[in-house]
Design a protein that fits this description.
By secondary structure, the chain is mainly beta. The chain has six helices and 17 strands.
């Protein structure tokens, strides 16, 4: 059980800040922090941001409304991250997402997220050695539609299940926890401005995620808040030639769940905002190079890291991967974090 507590603390420290992780130990902060983990390699290589620039099936996580502007009719993505490998060897994060566009103005999206905290050794109340595998998962279903030529809005509903402590049939935390939540998203994409072969297209995205019930565990007195989060991003797509393209983005996000009691000044509230920025170079829609930076203030976790990534597209497949490089003075459990994503372009298959 000690190992599980350490893992949970590190996960909370990464996605909500170390100060808030301590607050969570007192049962006053958010449950299921895995919902805020960046699930895909494209965003992971661009500083963990995608509110304005996610344009594939992974937009179900970042901003569903972006899919209203997608040129493809179908999309499927599978992502795998061996997480916190500098700390323990068997924590895994898996994300599966899908979208379909029935027409040119709307889209449906769905996703499944599974987070395994590995194998944990413990001893039951009668002294019997036991092994168990705590895990958490979430299912999403959403719809988005263009309301004007340049503006779209969307809504997503989510079911969340948390199974943190069942041990060989002996229930430590009765039945795990369950919750329902939803996202409200919006996206704006401007016209491309410039010459016929060289232009710039701006984008803006806003997503408020995980709005919902509390996570219920043993009883209502043990209910914990979900990690409700606001994310705002902007992006510029530079089409230099039909062969060379660049995308730049910048994003800010903030946890909206009740803050610890010590967060009471304007400065402290502003320091709860995390910042990310990134760039992607796209060569002939075949080879992509990415880089980014994520910044969290020292008073709220001090997670600061560079990211890099590559993408290769061939026939109906695209393979992406990203790598995270911490820049803090202390050794980070995020060292050597890799993420792999496989995307399927069904439109190409239909055209063949």
């Amino acid at each position: 059980m000690k190992r599980l507590a350490v893992i949970t603390f590190c996960i909370s420290a990464f996605v909500t800040g170390s100060a808030q992780a301590v607050y969570q130990v007192n049962n006053d902060s958010t449950a299921v922090p895995f919902l805020r983990i960046s699930p895909d390699s494209r965003a992971g290589g661009m500083g963990d941001g995608g509110a304005a620039c996610a344009n594939d099936a992974n937009a179900v996580h970042w901003n569903l409304s972006n899919l209203s502007f997608a040129k493809k009719k179908f999309g499927l993505a599978i992502s795998y991250t061996p997480w916190l490998r500098a700390l323990v060897p068997d924590i895994n994060h898996v994300y599966l997402s899908f979208f379909i566009k029935p027409d040119s103005v709307s889209a449906f999206g769905a996703s499944m997220r599974y987070f395994s905290l590995g194998s944990v050794s413990s001893t039951s109340v009668v002294g019997t050695p036991a092994q168990f595998r705590p895990n958490e998962f979430a299912f999403d279903l959403g719809y988005t539609r263009k309301l004007t030529e340049h503006f779209a809005a969307g809504i997503t509903v989510r079911f969340i299940q948390s199974n943190p402590t069942g041990i060989n049939g002996i229930v430590v935390r009765d039945g795990g926890g369950r919750a329902c939540a939803g996202d409200i998203t919006a996206a704006w994409k401007g016209n491309a401005a410039g010459s016929e072969n060289r232009n710039v297209r701006p984008s803006v995205g806003l997503a408020i995620t995980n709005i919902g019930t509390k996570m219920w565990y043993e009883d209502r007195d043990s209910a914990e808040f979900l990690p409700t989060n606001a994310r705002f991003g902007t992006a510029l797509e530079f089409i230099l030639t039909p062969i060379h393209q660049f995308t730049l983005h910048a994003e800010a996000n903030r946890l909206l769940s009740p803050a610890p009691a010590y967060v009471n000044t304007t400065k402290e509230k502003l320091e709860q905002i995390n910042l990310s920025t990134g760039i992607e170079y796209n060569y002939l829609h075949t080879f992509k190079v990415r880089g980014g930076y994520f910044h969290e203030f020292e008073s709220h976790g001090d997670n600061r890291y560079f990211t890099c990534g590559l993408g290769i597209e061939y026939t109906i497949f695209q393979l992406d991967f990203s790598y995270l490089i911490p820049v803090t003075d202390q050794r980070s459990p995020l060292e050597n974090t890799l993420c792999f994503t496989l995307l399927f372009n069904f439109d190409r298959l239909r055209n063949q």
